[in-house]
Design a protein that fits this description.
Length: 206
């Protein structure tokens, strides 16, 4: 379970987030919606440990999060352009989790199958569509066995058909018991996938 209690963040004296509190139960999906400038991505980065908070508490199962418990699928995917799909997924498990080459490859192939990307193992990011890159980014994040997977605007710039594919994929991952947190400005998408929706707005709007 993820608990966020009275979280606040200020940059150079400007308050970005104030008094954010919510609980996300294991296996559930939380979407955080709001306009640009509301601090959604900052909130995600703090939860993922990529940015520091000014005050408040973040707990996973009642304890401070440790490295690797929260995975992130970034808006621009951040794939390694010089590595194949398979190498993108196996690199971190081998370096960080000390998995063997065989173990990391088996897991990567299983994840690609789960995400309907079998047959793309030897391709490079430039050979993939936006939707395919996203699936590789999700597989790469899942390969690190996170307790919670976060997405930053997973449907931005996608047409309605692809958006539905993302919905199916996220709901499919929910069936595996994965806890997911999604940043989005797309309220329809948010309501279609979420167990709960948290609305945030720029603090200047009161």
């Amino acid at each position: 379970m993820l608990e966020v209690k009275k979280l606040a963040k200020a940059f150079n004296g400007r308050q970005i987030l104030k008094n954010i509190s919510f609980t996300l139960n294991d296996g559930d999906i939380l979407t955080i919606v709001g306009p640009s400038g509301a601090g959604k991505t900052t909130l995600l980065r703090i939860i993922a440990g990529l940015e520091t908070k000014s005050s408040g508490e973040i707990l996973i199962d009642g304890k401070e999060p440790t490295s690797g418990q929260v995975g992130v699928v970034f808006q621009d995917f951040n794939l390694f352009l010089n590595l194949s799909v398979l190498a993108n997924i196996t690199l971190a498990p081998q370096l960080v989790l000390k998995e063997s080459d065989r173990e990391a490859k088996k897991q990567a192939l299983d994840l690609l199958k789960q995400l309907q990307m079998t047959g793309h193992e030897a391709q490079y990011p430039y050979q993939l569509s936006g939707g395919q890159k996203q699936r590789v980014a999700i597989a790469r994040a899942l390969a690190m066995k996170p307790k919670i997977l976060c997405y930053d605007e997973p449907t931005s710039a996608l047409d309605p058909e692809l958006r539905q594919e993302v919905e199916k994929m996220i709901l499919g991952l929910k069936k595996t018991g994965l806890t997911q947190l999604i940043i989005t400005h797309d309220l329809t998408f948010a309501e279609n996938v979420a167990d709960q929706v948290l609305r945030v707005k720029p603090l200047s709007e009161g």
